[in-house]
Amino acid sequence: MLVSRIIVAPLLAVLVFGCAPTWDSYLPAESGPVVEPTAGLSPPFGTTAVPDGFENPRGYRVGTGDTLNVRVYGQEDLSGDFSVDASGNISMPLAGTIRVAKLTTPEIARAIEHRLAQKYLRDPNVSVQVATLRPFYILGEVQNPGSFAYTPGLTVQEAIALGGGYTPRADQGLVLVTRRSSSGAQSEQVPVLTPLYPGDVVYVKERWF
User: Which of 86, 124, 149, 173 is deepest in the core (most CB within 10 A)?
Assistant: First the structure.
């Protein structure tokens, strides 16, 4: 009887953990629809959709409010910093208006090269970098609510610190984060160690007692 229990226990463990979702289940797929999390679990916010600026394995995707540094080699008059407007476009000399929202910087560089090669330059060579990321916002029960510059790796806890910390009335539990994604605005209550992304709105609630 003891031997059978010893054999059965590892088999049960394999069955249970073999079926458990892994971190990879929450990452955006390389192509096609994004994998939804298993019901009842709370993965870090942002792994259930592809927001305009979601930092995923395919690279940062540009959105409204970002500023891009564009260099056209050998053409200094075409180079400079360009802000992404409310429509998700930038406007460049000669190249005109170019749609950049939801594209990575290599994709934007190729789009600019294609536009310039059509009429103006032979074999243009373009590089694109994100000069400044769009800000995030923190509201509610913090000492100094407002908009703040985003830095990669920022968490909700660090955002609260940038906002001057909690007020005496703040609920120091879960925090409401709102993010615009490819399917519209999404809001979710998250723990303070959750990573944030450019454009996120953090709302610290008031406690009830």
Answer: 124
CATH of domain 67-132: 3.30.1950.10
Predicted TM-score (pTM) of the model is: 0.63
Euclidean distance between CA atoms 67 and 105, whole angstroms: 11
From CA 121, how far away is CA 118, in angstroms rounded? 8
Residue 77 near residue 116, CB atoms below 8 Å: no
171 CB neighbour count, 10 Å cutoff: 15
User: Which residue's entry shows tokens 């458990």?
Assistant: 20
Of 102-106, 107-111, 203-207, minimum mean pLDDT range: 102-106
Which of 75, 53, 56 is closest to 64 using CA atoms?
53
What element of type H or E holds 17? helix 2-18
**Long-range contacts, 189-194 (Cβ 8 Å, 24+):** 190/42, 190/44, 190/45, 190/156, 191/156, 192/155, 192/156, 192/157, 192/160, 193/155, 193/156, 193/157, 194/44, 194/45, 194/155, 194/156
Strand partners of residue 140: 204
Domain ranges (residues) in the chain: 67-132, 135-209
CATH annotation of 135-209:
3.10.560.10
pLDDT of residue 184: 67
